[in-house]
Each structure stands twice: as C-alpha cells, then as structure tokens.
C-alpha cells in the first residue's frame, strides 16, 4: 500500500514539473516569422550623359584668318604651287555648332585622314561669326574629301567650303553669307572657275546638303554682282560708263 502511495506521489511530482516548463507568457519571445528576408540592392550610380555643346566664348583656331572688306587674307594664297581647280562645292556642317578643329575631329572619327574641307566658315559658336578658317588641305593644295560623287572629280578638282550650321533648320548668318561671297569671288577669279561650276553639294549627288535655307543660286548671283563691282573699281573707264 505504501509503495502505491509513493508511486502516485512521484507521478504527480513529474506532472507538476512539466507543467511549470510550459510558460503561458507568449510576450516573452518575438513572434515566429516564416517570410524570407528581403535583400535591398544598392542604388545604381547616376548615369552621366556627355553631349558636345558650343563653347560659351568663340575661340578661333590658330593660323586661321577672318575675311575683311577690301583685303584678301594672306592665308588664302597657298605657299605651294596651286592645284588645277575646276569646281567649288558648298556644304553645311549639319550641326548647330562647330569649327574647323571640331569638324576635323568628327572626320577623323569617321576614318578621314584630316579635315575634308578646304575652308570652314563659322557661325559664332566655336569660331567667329563669318570667320573663314583655312584647312591644311588648302595650304598643301591637297585633294578634298568632301564629295565622292561620280568619278570622284569633285574631290580631286573641287574646292570644298563648309558653313557651320544645319540649314534645314536655320538660315546662315549674314556674316557667313558675306564671307562666303567674298571667298567664292576670290577663288573664281584666281582659279578661273566659271559660275556654273559653283555648286551646292546636293547638285552633285543625292543629298540634302547644304540644306534648304542655303540658296546656292543666290550665292552665285551675289558673287557675280561682287565681281562686277570689283571690275568697275579697277577700271575707271567702266566706272564712268565710257
């Protein structure tokens, strides 16, 4: 009998111990979370976009000259024997800004040996408004790299003149037109180039160059007028109407 009582007390003691291990204080530990942790990726670095833009102040390139009324810049006269020139081809840069130095970089990036034009006329962005920049092709009397139409005749015997600007969107400046007329008149007279051989790039091949707002026929007319006025000034008899 005593053994039964001891056994009963032992069982009751273990039951009480187990009951004490199971705490009813659920706030003692944080609730169980079965959701996967969220990994936050580091912020991506900002994207830097580099675009070419005109300089705030025009910076003429060295050894280049600006046309002035009544005087032909010495740089227009090449230091070597002249090439046999037949044509004058007029282009636009198809950009709102530029200079001889910039276009030289663009041409080299396309695989050219250097600036493809003989002359570049600025619009006041990266060179002066109406500034005539003389390319190395002119000083060397080297063939051009500006018009590969037909049998390459316009490169081999054509003087390439580029006006900075996109003349499908804007007109050339008044200073650019004056400089173009002065330069073309000088080249025509010096190299005996007929007016019909002064062409826009689009007159030699299928291209929009030099843009719809650069009227090459008007340039030819202005050049003819300029040459006629020069003849009158040089010949007093013509000026007096004799």
Describe the fold and architecture.
The chain is an alpha/beta fold and 242 residues long. The protein has a domain at 83-239: Peptidoglycan recognition protein-like (Lysozyme-like, 3-Layer(aba) Sandwich), CATH 3.40.80. The chain has helices spanning 2-21, 100-109, 136-139, 153-156, 174-191, 216-234, 236-239, and strands at 87-92, 119-123, 129-134, 158-163, 198-200. Strand 2 (119-123) and strand 3 form a beta hairpin. The protein is globular and about 50 Å long. The termini are far apart. Mean pLDDT is 79; it is low at 9-69.
Break the fold down into its secondary structure elements and pairings.
Elements: H1 2-21, E1 87-92, H2 100-109, E2 119-123, E3 129-134, H3 136-139, H4 153-156, E4 158-163, H5 174-191, E5 198-200, H6 216-234, H7 236-239
Parallel strand pairs: 1-4, 1-5, 2-4
Antiparallel strand pairs: 2-3
Helix pairs in contact: 5-6
What would you say about this model in short?
It is built from seven helices and five strands, in the order αβαββααβαβαα. The chain is α/β, with parallel strands linked by helices and 242 residues long. It is globular and about 50 Å long.
Instruction: Describe the global form.
Output: globular
The separation of the N and C termini measures: 164 Å
What is the correct CATH architecture of one domain? 3-Layer(aba) Sandwich
Q: What value does the Rg take, in angstroms?
A: 41 Å
What is the N-to-C order of secondary-structure elements (H for helix, E for strand)?
HEHEEHHEHEHH
Main sheet record? 5 strands, mixed
Mean pLDDT: 79
Kindly state the number of beta strands.
Answer: 5
Helical residue percent band: 25-40%
Helical region count? 7
Low-confidence region ranges: 9-69
Q: Mind telling me the CATH class of one domain? A: Alpha Beta
Strand % is 5-15%
């Amino acid at each position: 009998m005593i053994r039964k009582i001891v056994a009963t007390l032992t069982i009751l003691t273990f039951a009480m111990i187990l009951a004490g291990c199971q705490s009813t204080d659920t706030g003692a530990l944080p609730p169980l979370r079965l959701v996967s942790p969220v990994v936050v990726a580091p912020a991506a670095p900002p994207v830097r976009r580099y675009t070419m833009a005109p300089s705030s102040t025009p910076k003429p390139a060295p050894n280049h000259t600006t046309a002035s009324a009544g005087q032909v810049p010495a740089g227009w006269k090449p230091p070597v024997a002249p090439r046999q020139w037949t044509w004058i081809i007029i282009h636009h840069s198809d950009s709102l800004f530029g200079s001889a130095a910039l276009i030289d970089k663009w041409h080299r990036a396309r695989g050219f040996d250097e600036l493809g034009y003989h002359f570049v006329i600025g619009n006041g962005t990266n060179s002066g408004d109406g500034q005539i920049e003389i390319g190395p092709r002119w000083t060397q009397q080297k063939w051009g790299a500006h018009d590969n139409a037909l049998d390459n005749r316009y490169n081999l015997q054509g003087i390439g003149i580029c006006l900075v600007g996109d003349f499908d969107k804007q007109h050339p400046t008044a200073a650019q037109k004056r400089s173009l007329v002065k330069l073309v008149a000088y080249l025509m007279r010096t190299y005996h180039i007929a007016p019909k051989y002064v062409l826009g790039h689009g007159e030699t091949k299928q291209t929009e160059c030099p843009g719809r707002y650069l009227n090459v026929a008007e340039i030819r007319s202005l050049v003819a007028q300029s040459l006629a006025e020069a003849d009158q000034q040089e010949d007093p008899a013509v000026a007096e109407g004799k």
